[in-house]
Amino acid sequence: MKVDVLAVGTELLLGQIVDTNSSWIGEQLASAGIDTYEHRKIGDNLDRVVRCIESMLETADAIIICGGLGPTPDDLTREAIAQAMGVPLERREELVDWIASLFGGRGRQMPENNLRQADVPVGGDVIPNPIGTAPGLKCEFNGRVIYAVPGVPYEMQRMVNEHVIPDLLERTGERAVILNRSLKTWGASESGLAEMIARQVDDQSNPSIAFLARGIEGIVVRLTAKAPTLEAAAALIAPEEAKLRSTLGDLIFAVDDETMEEAVLSRLGARGWTLGVAESLTGGLVGSRIAGVPGASAIFKGTIGAYATEVKQSLLGVTSDEVVSAECAREMAEGARRVLGSDVGISVTGVAGPDSQDGAPVGTVWFGLALPGLPVEAVTARLPGDRERIRQFSTISLMNLLRMRLDALA
Amino acid sequence: MKVDVLAVGTELLLGQIVDTNSSWIGEQLASAGIDTYEHRKIGDNLDRVVRCIESMLETADAIIICGGLGPTPDDLTREAIAQAMGVPLERREELVDWIASLFGGRGRQMPENNLRQADVPVGGDVIPNPIGTAPGLKCEFNGRVIYAVPGVPYEMQRMVNEHVIPDLLERTGERAVILNRSLKTWGASESGLAEMIARQVDDQSNPSIAFLARGIEGIVVRLTAKAPTLEAAAALIAPEEAKLRSTLGDLIFAVDDETMEEAVLSRLGARGWTLGVAESLTGGLVGSRIAGVPGASAIFKGTIGAYATEVKQSLLGVTSDEVVSAECAREMAEGARRVLGSDVGISVTGVAGPDSQDGAPVGTVWFGLALPGLPVEAVTARLPGDRERIRQFSTISLMNLLRMRLDALA
Q1: Does the predicted TM-score (pTM) go above 0.90?
Q2: How far A238 CA lies from chain B's nearest CA (Å)?
Q3: pLDDT tens, A113-171?
Q4: What is the ipTM of this complex?
Q5: Cβ-nearest to A341 among B19, B304, B310
Q6: Chain B contact for A46, CB < 8 A?
Q7: Domains, chain A, ranges and CATH?
Q8: d(C-alpha A224, C-alpha A182), whole Å
Q9: Cα dist from B308 to A57, B278, B318, B354, B391, whole Å
């Protein structure tokens, strides 16, 4: 089974919007074990969309078309599919009723254009859209299938996950569900991870094990199981996840959608500890990420972005002028705890560049950790990249250090 | 002239990397007045890449291929172009010498694979790569042109700007250069801007005027002039830019690549004033963006991310428990100035959600501004969106307010 993807929209060709939909669909197809060989982007031109559909169906068993399902005249996907199939569009009464209900009932004023969204190529099926106004389409044609989904990412993702992928799997005769479990790691390279779990990866086909690089957010080790039911898939994943966890240990900081800042806050919350931060080169980035988590206020007191040396001294009690040092990191962590009145104080100071500082090369960073009942600690690292990457790496490294210390206490 | 784009790489289909290159190229083509109708992504498979090139050349006058020019065996673009042209590859001695020099001279050990980067389809030309190891290609074939550029964005962008676009313009017989000037605006909607300058946009063809939405970074009004020389293009742009500036006034915060934080820092630097920040719902985001500018340390003292109410009170001298208020914003701005020892203090406090606070609905934000010689001021706004957007809008709104106050002083 080979499924290709077509994104429709002139704004995609002109670079006004980056097409992230086809990448996302490609990832879902891959994790469902379905081949995808070619993705295309094309503008809002009826003839060209029709020719593109015809051309893609010469080699694909199915195509997924994103976008062009809206109510405006440049939304041409419905017409293009009908022309490619050689059938007319028919207006579906049940869709007219549904669209009217979105506008507050059939008696109410409804733009005529919106009724276009009730048009379906003859012989085609509707894919319901529970969170938007554009219904999706599923049209079988000469033994091939054309799916059409909206360009709005949330609506598209829900239709693909709930309708398109299950329908494709059923067509392969598998009648299977796919379950993913993402173990999010930080602190090891992809090749390092691959070496640690090489044998397990080689021995494994269901669940399969894949690495996904997530830049400054680390590397995800993804388990993908295919089984007749969700329960059966979960049962396949459990022993492999346990094996991975025993090998990877505290490299794993979170699972699935949990972020590093959420991982830190949940561990602090479990102990009833509050957090204060002092940061130099990151200038507030650590605090900003932590404050981004809904509910952070129960735990997060604040951050002191002590960018200038005299602020580190006057506000945080740093005693030296040498601010890229273990001493400074420790004093900043203690200062954050004292000034912000928190149980835990953490800090980061270092050289983001472009110039070196106090004789320390660009990328030199010191982290400070002040936890209840433990001596104040300083840890150093030499981080790679340009100014922005060093600031980002510093931020996640500091949060990860705290996460590891909290786990070690348990 | 119709130029299409092909991005090569299995990782693009699997969603491991989002193809941003073709969007970027599409934007450059559009701003050079060159049509682009179709972009494709395809995996690292020789037969499929060859068939894809052949198929795209049926309708395009030229194609730009990104990626697949590296040294490893899955880098197949050179072979694919040669096969599509029906010619063999030949190893170019001057490229062998150049690649050898990158490895420290011909005598040194050089992986055999790297020599593959010296292979060029017979009849093809080399596009030099001053910042990477992969040379680009320009191959004419049956009256059409195939350009191949690396997948690494910086290298690709430089080759497209310096070689591909000029070569395409020369082929159109225009012998023109394209000059863009981006006026970055904040505070008006796209439809609002469009209304303000509708007549000028309609009357204008060279330079053309386009709107580019940049999300939380505002809307860019881009002037694009085509002329025989850069000087002539600049002369076309100057009067139109002056007209736009007189209409848009202080909606324009920066030009071309300058960011809002750079705009703020350069204005403060011109007066010799230092800056301190106090922030609540943004938790350090304002400070983080300002500290991200190289050289910020001469001006930026730091930020107090006073997330908890008691920190606003103990550290910044806020007197009330009602922290979503004009009074609190003013006290925070004054507190930032006092505690951080800066000339200027700015602040933001408000409700990022998901829950309302002190009876103020989600999105309610107060900004404080304390400038030398002026009474401390508070400004409110009701910002749209979810928690993250409200935090981001608050950050850029605060910087923009300061930018406007500094301009008004001038």
Answers
A1: no
A2: 25
A3: 788 899 999 999 999 998 888 899 999 999 999 999 999 888 999 999 999 999 999 89
A4: 0.80
A5: B310
A6: no
A7: 3-171 (3.40.980.10), 177-255 (3.30.70.2860), 262-409 (3.90.950.20)
A8: 9
A9: 59, 12, 12, 17, 16
